[in-house]
Design brief:
44% of the residues lie in helices and 13% in strands. It is α/β, with parallel strands linked by helices. It has a single domain (9-253), classed as Rossmann fold, CATH 3.40.50.720. The protein has a seven-stranded parallel sheet, with helices on both faces. Helix 2 (48-58) links the parallel strand 2 and strand 3 (61-66). Helix 3 (72-85) runs parallel beside helix 4. The protein starts with 8 loop residues before the first strand and ends in a 17-residue tail after the last helix.
Length: 270
């Protein structure tokens, strides 16, 4: 793997598992130091500490910080620590997300508890704004060329799962576009990324009961490698403010997952 991110500092929120973990590993493959956040710590398979080991094995340096992104004070403490330890951030990947329990799949908005709004919009949108707010001075300290990548979903532009899910993702896309305008004079890019269907640990666990065919799914590392390619793209600033599909990035930069495949195209993409 190339080492274009040697000396760069990245933060990937919600990286104990899923797309966050895949992205942390992919950035590490290019030499980055990656701050890994999430609520789950310890020796279990889906923890920030296990992700650190995987990041280190991939050739980067992982630093685990236990953070509940539903708590503003914990988010503030994360970035205060980063300021004290390294004084800058080159890449912020806002990925953290809370799946409601039980998941809000189907039915009407009246069928779900009001709390799913706080799960899907609070953690999937508000927490990204708070993290970006705290990260901004550290990104400016690194100078032009930095980036904020917001992990969104095709649910931002068409119906997926529930109305609260769509509201959160559409809001995130608008946030990305408007932050890009405000960041442009600083030479900092901001994009939303749209993965397709992704075989996360959670999706694999429920695929049997839902009858989900994962042969047509992207992998978490494959998504992460596309995000890593995006942040080092020579035309990143030209892409700023846009929605970037993982499948397009994969094709443009020939990124491959752990199985040697490009990102699978999203079957319902218009």
């Amino acid at each position: 793997m190339s080492r274009e991110l040697e000396g760069k500092i990245a933060v990937v929120t919600g990286s104990s598992r899923g797309i966050g973990r895949g992205t942390a590993i992919a950035l590490a493959e290019k030499g980055a130091t990656v701050y890994i956040t999430g609520r789950s710590a310890g020796d279990g398979p889906l923890t920030i500490d296990t992700t650190v080991k995987m990041v280190n094995e991939a050739g980067g340096k992982g630093i685990a910080v236990q953070v509940d992104h539903g708590d503003d004070a914990q988010i503030a403490a994360l970035f205060a620590r980063i300021k004290a330890e390294v004084g800058k951030i080159d890449i912020l990947v806002n990925n953290v997300y809370k799946i409601p329990d039980p998941p809000a799949w189907g039915g009407g908005f009246w069928d779900h508890p009001v709390s799913i709004w706080d799960d899907q919009v609070g953690i999937g949108l508000r927490a990204h704004y708070i993290a970006s707010w705290h990260a901004a001075p550290l990104i400016f300290a690194a100078g032009p060329g930095g980036s904020i990548i917001n992990v969104s979903s095709p649910g931002g532009s068409s119906y997926h799962f529930s109305s609260s899910y769509g509201a959160g993702k559409a809001g995130l896309d608008r946030l990305s576009a408007d932050m890009a305008l405000e960041l442009k004079p600083k030479g900092i890019a901001c994009c939303s990324v749209y993965p397709g269907s992704v075989a996360t640990e959670f999706i694999q666990a429920v695929s049997g009961e839902r009858g989900t065919d994962l042969t047509a799914a992207q992998t978490t590392l494959g998504v992460g490698r596309a995000i890593a390619a995006l942040v080092i793209a020579p035309d990143l600033m030209e892409r700023s403010g846009t929605i970037q599909w993982i499948e397009d990035i994969s094709e443009q930069f020939d990124t491959r997952d752990e199985n040697g495949n490009r990102a699978v195209k999203y079957k319902t993409r218009k």
